[in-house]
Structures are given as structure tokens and as C-alpha cells.
Specification:
This protein is of the alpha/beta class. The protein folds into three domains: about 10-50, 434 Repressor (Amino-terminal Domain) (Orthogonal Bundle), CATH 1.10.260; about 65-165 and about 300-330, Response regulator (Rossmann fold); about 165-295 and about 335-340, Rossmann fold (3-Layer(aba) Sandwich), CATH 3.40.50. The protein contains 13 helices and twelve strands. α5 (about 75-90) packs parallel to α13 and α8 runs parallel beside α9. It is elongated, with a radius of gyration of 25 Å. Pfam families: LacI (PF00356), Peripla_BP_3 (PF13377). Keywords: DNA-binding, Transcription, Transcription regulation. This is LacI family transcriptional regulator.
Length: about 350
């Protein structure tokens, strides 16, 4: 295959009989260049197929204006809303976002960390995989004082900046709501307990049970990766147990919806026989029948806050600034039909 030729500012300069420095300034919208010249240069650049070499530019400026972003999966509703907030907020500050998916594997997460470090991003936003138990592989950023901010899922004992939801309160509110709707035997679908989110949501669940003097029953705790398939398997086991639970708190909406669908296949009435609360306020929670009571955790706002934090760190790396180190978003219970009193 014939190698594609690369148009440079020197080619544009030669074509227009201008200096390379004038072309460079025109392409950067430098106010020293008059409108007529700027327009002529930019038109020629477009026609000739000029593409800026951002790597070379970042080396010269010691700034790429790019923020790396590692998420488990972009298809997750919460992450997609957070990414939207990140993208919009980053654009306001003049930054672009480069996204990588870990696919919930530590190996891919490690690879992405090193890729983004090699690409000299100005900072890194990250959501830990469900199985990340250490932040050691993020050390290239930490040791080189490149801003690193975790949001949503944070590795245990991470000493840096984080943006999270109030997962303990979310677990507490969900369980308390079920109790107030008359439930006494409440099951819990939890994510893998290497992950901070699910540790805190489980702790909130246990605290609500304790407050209302309902004993915690290990047999009612199902720990899995909260996918539709895993939740369906857990639901099949739970719905064939005796006695049946009268309530379920699921640590995400995906598993709550899977449970409702499995209950429907078995002609078990929701909320008549079992009341259900999910977590995240996914779109699915609004369109499932019955509609799902859930916990709102403000993905879009969390994304915005994550960018606001990392941009402050990028722009003031050599200064003493006041940035909240561990920002926690409040959560809200959204009551719907799945916990309605009969």
C-alpha cells in the first residue's frame, strides 16, 4: 500500500508564499494575523487536507489539552450519562476527552493506564473495574504528579481525589423504604465486594435492617457481577427458596429488572408478593412494568464535577489550591410502582 503523504505547514506556506510562522499563527487563530490572511490559510489547509500533529504540538507546549478517561463499559447507563457530563464540561474548559473501556478487567485497565500515560494526556479520570483491588498500576500518574481523579468506583485506600455518590445512604434509603412498605424478609443482590460501591450499599442495607430490628440473613445475600444473566440465575434460586422474600434491594437497576422479569415468568406478583428497589435510575427503570423504584445518583452531574476537579488540578499544579479531595454527591429515592402498597 502506498504511504499517504502528510501535508505540513511548510507546504501550506509554500503554496501561499507565506512564512511557516504566519501559517502556524493563522491556524491557531492568533490575533496578530489579520482576518483575510487567517481565512486564506485555513481555507488552503482544508483543501490540502492538513491535519495538525497534536503530539508534536503537545511536546512543544507541554500541554495536550486532552484528558484520558477509563470506564468499565460505555454501554452502562450511569457511565453514558456521566460521560455526557464529562464531554460537555471538558469542552467548556477547552479540553478534549479520550475514552478507553476496561471491559471490567484489571488487565485492560492496566493497559489503558500505560497507553494514556504514553500519550501524555494532561490528566486522567478513571472508574475502577469491579475487580480492581489496588491503585498501584496508576502509579505512573501519581509518581509524575499528573492529575488523577477517580469517580463512582474508587480503589480501596486510594489517597487521592475522588467523586462518588453517597452509596451507604442509598443502600439505607432503599432498604428503609421496603421496610416502611411492610417488608420483613428483604433479599439483597450485591455487586462483587472488592468494589467500594457495593461494600457501602451493603453496609447501608445492613444498617437499615438493624435500625428496624430485622436480623441480617446471610441466605438472602446474593453476590454477583450484576449483569442480566447473573441476576437471572440469582433470581431463579431466590424465587424457588422457601419462604419467599417479600422485598428485594438490588444494587443496580439491571439486576432489579432481571429479577422482575423472572418473577413475571413464574407468575409471582410484583409488588403484590415481592416489592423491588433498584439503583441508578436507568431508563429501563421507567419502562419496565411495573415501573421500578430506584435510587438516583446524578451521573451527569458527577461527570461535570469530575472534570471541574481535574481541570483545577491541571491548571494549578504548582499552586496551593483548595479542591475538595473526596466529594460525595447526595442520592435520592425515586418511588414507583414496584414498591406500591396493594
Amino acid at each position: 500500500m502506498k504511504e499517504r503523504s502528510k501535508i505540513t505547514i511548510y507546504d501550506i506556506a509554500q503554496a501561499l508564499n507565506l512564512s511557516a510562522s504566519t501559517v502556524s499563527r493563522a491556524l491557531q487563530n492568533n490575533p496578530l494575523i489579520n482576518d483575510e490572511t487567517r481565512s486564506k490559510v485555513q481555507k488552503a489547509a482544508a483543501e490540502m487536507g492538513y491535519v495538525p500533529n497534536w503530539i508534536a504540538s503537545s511536546l512543544r507546549k507541554k500541554r495536550s489539552n486532552i484528558i484520558g478517561l477509563i470506564v468499565p463499559r460505555t454501554s452502562m447507563y450511569f457511565q453514558s450519562t456521566a460521560i455526557s457530563g464529562i464531554q460537555h464540561e471538558a469542552h467548556k474548559y477547552g479540553f478534549s476527552i479520550m475514552i478507553g473501556q476496561s471491559d471490567e478487567t484489571v488487565a485492560m485497565e492496566k493497559e489503558l493506564v500505560h497507553t494514556f500515560f504514553s500519550l501524555r494526556v494532561d490528566g486522567l479520570l478513571a472508574v475502577a473495574s469491579m475487580f480492581t483491588t489496588s491503585y498501584e498500576h496508576f502509579s505512573p500518574f501519581i509518581k509524575n504528579n499528573i492529575p488523577l481523579v477517580f469517580y463512582d468506583r474508587v480503589p480501596v485506600d486510594f489517597p487521592g481525589y475522588s467523586i462518588t455518590g453517597d452509596d451507604f445512604t442509598g443502600g439505607y434509603l432503599a432498604t428503609e423504604h421496603l421496610i416502611k412498605q411492610g417488608c420483613k424478609r428483604i433479599a439483597h443482590f450485591s455487586g462483587v465486594l472488592t468494589c467500594n460501591l457495593y461494600q457501602h450499599r451493603l453496609a447501608g442495607y445492613k444498617a437499615a435492617l438493624a435500625k428496624y430490628q430485622i436480623p441480617f440473613d446471610e441466605q438472602l445475600l446474593y453476590v454477583h457481577n450484576l449483569t442480566t444473566d447473573a441476576a437471572t440465575t440469582a433470581a431463579q434460586e431466590l424465587l424457588t427458596s422457601k419462604p419467599l422474600p417479600d422485598g428485594l434491594f438490588a444494587a443496580n437497576d439491571t439486576s432489579a429488572v432481571a429479577f422482575i422479569q423472572e418473577a413475571r415468568r413464574r407468575n409471582i406478583a410484583i409488588p403484590g408478593q415481592i416489592k423491588v428497589v433498584g439503583y441508578s435510575n436507568d431508563l429501563s427503570s421507567r419502562i419496565i412494568t411495573p415501573s421500578l423504584t430506584t435510587i438516583e445518583q446524578s451521573g451527569y452531574k458527577m461527570g461535570q464535577k469530575a472534570v471541574e476537579t481535574i481541570v483545577q488540578l491541571i491548571n494549578h499544579q504548582d499552586d496551593t489550591i483548595k479542591v475538595t479531595k473526596n466529594f460525595v454527591f447526595p442520592v435520592e429515592l425515586i418511588p414507583r410502582e414496584s414498591t406500591r402498597l396493594s
